[in-house]
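New to this. Please check this fold:
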Amino acid sequence: MSYNPWHGCHKISAGCVNCYMFRGDERFDRDANTVRKTLAFNLPIQKKKDGSYKVKSNTTLFTCLTSDFFIEEADEWRDEVWEMIKVRSDCHFFIITKRIHRFMQCIPMDWNEGYDNVSIACTIEDQTQVNLRFPLLNQYPIKHKLIICEPILERIDLSNYLNDSIEEIIVGGESGPKARVCNYDWVLDLKSQAESFKIDFTFKQTGANFVMNNKSYKIDRKDQLSQAKKAGIDHYYKEATYRNKEAL
């Protein structure tokens, strides 16, 4: 289930160039750079008439998919969301970020070694971001750490930073009319790196501009997930907390 307490973002690195959120806002003539609270802000604690939560227990909430959880404009609202995350300890909150550098100034006072029901997935699209973001992710107190290489833009070497604290590597190509190339060799290389450290691996989507065996393929949006699944290269050594939920 998607949970977007705020909407809007700013492009900060190469992976942001063709961001789907910006494309969507452009179609509706909205300024995607304006960060604003949404009507779904308190979704985790909304209740039905009978007093039960609208969001079922054991649901995974993919949080801030149309923004960044650690974006500066949300500093005044974030503590409220942390409180809801604590209240809904029966759900799992999956947070994807390109702003891992802001992590320590954005966590609650009682974070300590991390909340059991929160996964932090750091987006790394090229080697520049590997070297900038991965060392920060490694040093921060987070119970569930993941790496998302999406959109993957070049061959990426994670080996200098990988360790058993990383639960999963998720890889995907770029969607949209201006999608940059996703080369299958890059995907297989990351799969091999994950295997070396017994880290779970998911090939999420091919992207629209896919290269395999030196041949280029244009993949329709509706087929990008299924074609990646059809490759049959996902591997799992453990049941990741976020996957072991009713919503998945």
